[in-house]
Amino acid sequence: MKEIIKIKKFAEKLSDALGLGKAALTTAYEDILYHMWQEASLPTEIGPKQPEVLDAMSRKGFLAKMEKGIEKPVGYVLPLQWNDGKHCWQSCVWEFKRGHCFLLPGESPLGYRLPLDSLPWSDNIIDRDPFDIPDSFAKTKKTKKGIIGKEMIKTALALEVRCGRLYVFMPPTSHFEHYLAILTAVESVAKMLAIPVVIEGYTPPKDSRVEKYAVTPDPGVIEVNIHPSKSWEQLVERTTTLYGLAKQSRLGTDKFMADGRHTGTGGGNHVTLGGETPDQSPFLRRPDILRSFITYWQHHPGLSYLFSGLFIGPTSQAPRVDEARDEILYELEIAFSHMPEGEVPAPWLVDRLLRNLLVDLTGNTHRAEFCIDKLYSPDSATGRLGIVEFRGFEMPPHEQMSLVQMLLLRTLLAWFWKKPYHKPLVRWGTELHDKFLLPQYVENDLAEVSRDLQQAGFGFQLSWLDPFFEFRFPVCGTRELDNVTLELRTAIEPWHVLGEEATGSGTARYVDSSLERVQIKVQGTMSDRYIVTCNGRRVPLKAVKGKAKDEMVAGIRYRAWQPPTALHPTIGVHAPLTFDLIDTWEGRSLGGFVYHVSHAGGRNPESLPVNAFEAEGRRVARFWNMDIHLHY
Hints:
Elements: H1 2-17, E1 26-29, H2 32-41, H3 56-68, E2 75-79, E3 81-83, E4 88-91, E5 101-102, E6 147-148, E7 156-162, E8 165-170, H4 176-193, E9 197-201, E10 214-218, E11 221-225, H5 232-248, E12 254-256, E13 262-264, E14 271-273, H6 282-285, H7 287-299, H8 302-305, H9 328-337, H10 349-354, E15 370-371, E16 388-390, H11 399-418, H12 431-434, H13 439-455, H14 466-472, E17 475-481, E18 484-490, E19 497-503, E20 506-511, E21 515-523, E22 530-534, E23 537-538, E24 542-543, E25 551-559, E26 577-583, E27 588-595, H15 612-620, E28 623-626
Parallel strand pairs: 1-5, 4-6, 8-9
Antiparallel strand pairs: 1-2, 2-7, 3-4, 7-8, 10-11, 12-13, 14-16, 15-16, 17-18, 18-21, 19-20, 21-25, 22-23, 22-26, 24-25, 26-27, 27-28
Helix pairs in contact: 1-4, 5-11
């Protein structure tokens, strides 16, 4: 009873602070009829091993509410909306056919359980246009006397006590000033009554004058959206602080797979670029800037594959514009031809030209390498922020690696602003995956990017990307035989999403992760005397562009394991991979190595590595030197 009195007193004082009085306050109750029906429908006796035990949770919740007093008020609700014409708060009296406000069943906060469908229709809140936000906040004025009218208002502020704490559920608002006014009133009442409160409900509307960051739980990871940085110094400080706080919380940005491979957590390191305000965004002022980014990324596939996660390709979360859909480049060229150069007075132009082209296979605009959902979308005001999201970046294991990614993007933006990159698009065809999924060609491609930036006057060094090459394409092992060095590195392989299948829990689409790819590099004088074989087949080595004549590479794509659902199910497992250096003059193998995709002795681990040393031990155990001289 004390809690109810405390909530009611707080609600009345808050209504007075907003200039509305007590007339519009609505008392909220649990729906007694629903809970009695639910209790009556439960089985008579429930055993611990019966599937009906899940329904017992409903009984447990019902008993907890009965113990608290299901006939007592849960909290109080105040319909609330800002009246632009009279510059004051407006409310109304909610009337229900059952005479009282009975909440929807559930355990969610009171504000999410309001029976809004039982009320007459009302207008929705129109989001504020981000282009209409002034540069600074006006001075706070004293709250005017509010209006309690007949117009239906469905946005409401709610108060309830849970676990001994008073929760204030904030309503949705269109202006940050309105949200701040409610928060100020709550704070003043809480101070007056000496009652601590917890704020929940709707977040403040987006406002370019206010910085915020968000921490959101995602499957397997914690997603942190940090506030924008206005300078390089701010970005360095915030990135370093974020990594440091994560370490103190025993969280990491990398992990080890069961076979010992060092990878990212799977979470994205999505980078957003824009302006301090939407109208200052370089992508809205200069649509040719986005065209330059798209064209340059299309010309350099290494930018798409060096910084991404393991899951790449046409069905990934950030597919390239030229993956899977052959006609998209033709359509892009048409769109580019209608894109003017220099600054334009029409910010909507870039969205209209590219919205239906920067999508994935299903037409999803969010799952694209260049996401323009928040650039100048006509759907809502929150989509007109002048922001382009670069989704092809995975969270790297170190803060300095993350900063190098940001530095690369900032440098490219500065270059394109000074000199836009307007060139024909390249039809890579099968070369896109045949070449640029191998570490050697990715390195060559990024070397060209570094040279381009250096020629443009920026001192970007290729050596700054060395940690990315070692992290993305780790060495499996090396072997030196008769002045010839063989090096095996992990390459990347797209894992395609398969067709729909019926499962016990519904329709699902599996991912074919059975294919893997490695790169074999040969250094030394090969001539026509030596050849390299893999599982008895000759490896088609190619000379590396820009390297010495005695350096050659090749990629090997193989099936690592046999899942029950996969592409080409009749093709068996190729692992382990046995590499031989063959002396054709003597007709024998000089030796080689064997690469296993799992423990060679069949002792596959039952748990993940606990640290880097155990992970390295698992990797080393899968690479075997072989010195048996076989005659061919």
